[in-house]
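Hi team,

As requested, here is the filled-out complex form for the adenine run. I kept the field names the same as last time so the parser does not choke. Let me know if anything looks off before we queue the next batch.

— J.
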Amino acid sequence: MTAENAIWRATVLTLFPEMFPGHLGHSLAGKALADGLWSLDAHDIRSAAADKHATVDDTPFGGGPGMVMRADVIDAALTGVAGAGTDQAAPRPVIYMTPRGAPLTQARIAELAAGPGVVLLCGRYEGIDERVVEAWNMEEISIGDFVLSGGEPAAMALIDAAVRLLPGVIGSKLSFAEESFEGGLLEYPHYTRPRVWRDREVPEVLLSGHHGKVDAWRKAQAEKTTEERRPDLWNRYAAKNL
Ligand code: ADE
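And here is what came back:
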């Protein structure tokens, strides 16, 4: 297989490889995985530990609570992953999932989906020795301003969002055109039958058959919702479009 037609590869380094594929084995991503549109391998970080107790962590220099994952163990685990970092024909970015990372965006997901794949490092304990993060030039990504007990659900979220953008996973490109974050807005609300449900009616304009009016109404709804819920997105949108 050449680099151009190689499938998108996700490799996950974790202390809990049995958590995978988890939800990624179901629904859209699961079907695409079964169809060979992408691949997933979860590696146990512990198998890279050198001592007979398979030690992966130690107490933090400087004191403080919790344990820190060792640089030498993470380095050994990454060295065993083909295409991790920059040393291969189709290098995959090494991404450390951490609440200290840059917020994950749909734009970054689209870039990652367009590349050869990702190598995701899931932390546990208090974190990972900073030196191995630097030495591997890792990208640090957060999925939101909250703290998970480990990076695994964050890795799954990133993979899920990337896989649905891969060619052939979702039938129509039109499905993406109007979804949230396209054009910098949250998506407009949706309605289907019945037309009246518990005395609540579907907005009249959606029944009009007038595409121009429907589009205008949806755009206004998207703008209103974005302004109310996401001042950060709204300010960027307003600066560009209004
Ligand atoms: N690990 C723990 N919390 C996380 C978060 N919010 N995002 C990414 N990785 C994490």
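Two things worth flagging: The helical segments are 27-34, 71-79, 106-114, 130-135, 152-163, 174-177, 211-229, 231-241. The longest helix spans residues 211-229.

Thanks,
J.
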